[in-house]
UniProtKB/TrEMBL annotation:
<keyword id="KW-0285">Flavoprotein</keyword>
<dbReference type="InterPro" id="IPR036188">
    <property type="entry name" value="FAD/NAD-bd_sf"/>
</dbReference>
<feature type="domain" description="FAD/NAD(P)-binding">
    <location>
        <begin position="7"/>
        <end position="286"/>
    </location>
</feature>
<dbReference type="InterPro" id="IPR023753">
    <property type="entry name" value="FAD/NAD-binding_dom"/>
</dbReference>
<dbReference type="Pfam" id="PF07992">
    <property type="entry name" value="Pyr_redox_2"/>
</dbReference>
<protein>
    <submittedName>
        <fullName>FAD-dependent pyridine nucleotide-disulfide oxidoreductase</fullName>
    </submittedName>
</protein>
<keyword id="KW-0560">Oxidoreductase</keyword>
<dbReference type="GO" id="GO:0016491">
    <property type="term" value="F:oxidoreductase activity"/>
</dbReference>
<dbReference type="InterPro" id="IPR050097">
    <property type="entry name" value="Ferredoxin-NADP_redctase_2"/>
</dbReference>
């Protein structure tokens, strides 16, 4: 099977990955982007807090533009997932779904940070239509609305308290509350309505969220449901290669200001490199990662030619 040697191979085609592609290509690097744009967290979201984008814009529209830009500049985008990565000397061997293999001088992990799902009726259908996985991203869309947060840990409690500054009514559904004592105390002093010992049975709604059905068949009439179950990073491939995670939570890839990981030639950008989960951060880190990876590849090629 033939193997191509790519200067910069980017795993993930969201804002971080496509911005990295644009900057790497502009540095005259050969770039391949792997991933499915529609899987990006921003694809089904609405954006209103990104500089130079006025009003509320569909994430799918932004990503369509980003994809077109990356391809126009010369990046090759392949809508396939990675199956395996191995180190081969100074290069990295990457196998994708179709069985094709690439040899890459550098890798950029920009796969986002996949949110854990409830896996209940209505969740998938209403994603982006009232179902959200990021309070910080979407709280502003629910001013004076009734909302619910689902989760047991500190992220859910913090999200519920944050939403009290926006929503008219906030419910917190927790099977067993496991938040820190400090957050528990703050929660008890807040207007959040706690439903402990319950879980979600169904999310109701046709074109938008209209209600949340609990296991005891109680229905909460809400317009928004925030699922805060913690975040599981799509980092198995990186971790098995020895890429270091953050030392405190082990939930994202540790990088420096150049988006470098602990392994030479491997970079990370966007949600997979840690919070905040914002497109502005993802794009900025993608810019840096693409620039630095292209420089690394160029130096490696010069050394090979010497």
């Amino acid at each position: 099977m033939s193997e191509r040697i790519i200067d910069v191979l980017i795993i993930g085609s969201g804002p971080a990955g496509l911005q990295a592609a644009v900057h790497a290509v502009r540095k005259k690097a050969e770039v391949v982007v792997l991933g499915k744009v529609e899987r990006s967290a921003i694809y089904q979201a609405h954006v209103e807090n990104y500089l130079c984008v006025p009003g509320v814009t569909d994430g799918s529209e932004l990503m369509a533009t980003a994809l077109e830009q990356a391809q126009k500049f010369g990046a090759e985008v392949i809508a396939e997932d990675v199956l395996n990565i191995e180190q081969d000397g100074e290069l990295y061997k990457v196998k994708i779904e179709s069985g094709r293999q690439f040899m890459a001088r550098t890798l950029i992990f920009a796969t986002g940070n996949a949110r854990k799902k409830l896996k209940v009726k209505g969740e998938k259908e209403l994603s982006g239509k009232g179902v959200s996985y990021c309070v910080d991203c979407d709280a502003n869309f629910y001013r004076n609305a009734k909302v619910a947060v689902v989760g047991n840990e500190s992220a859910a409690v913090d999200g519920a308290i944050t939403l009290t500054r926006y929503a008219s009514e906030v419910h917190l559904v927790a099977r067993k509350l496991e938040a820190s004592p400090e957050l528990r105390a703050e929660l008890s002093q807040s207007p959040v309505q706690l439903h402990e010992g319950q879980w979600v049975k169904e999310i109701q709604g046709e074109q938008a969220v209209a209600g949340l059905v609990l296991e005891n068949d109680t229905t909460l009439e809400v317009e928004g449901v925030f699922i805060e179950l913690g975040a599981k990073g799509a980092m198995d491939l990186a971790a098995t290669m020895g890429v270091a995670m953050d030392p405190e939570t082990f939930s994202f890839i540790a990088t420096n200001k150049k988006q470098e990981t602990n392994m030479a030639g491997i970079y990370a950008a966007g949600d997979i490199a840690g919070p905040p989960w914002q497109m502005a951060k993802a794009v900025g880190e993608g810019c840096v990662a693409g620039w630095e990876a292209a420089n690394f590849a160029a130096k490696q090629k010069r050394a090979d030619a010497a």
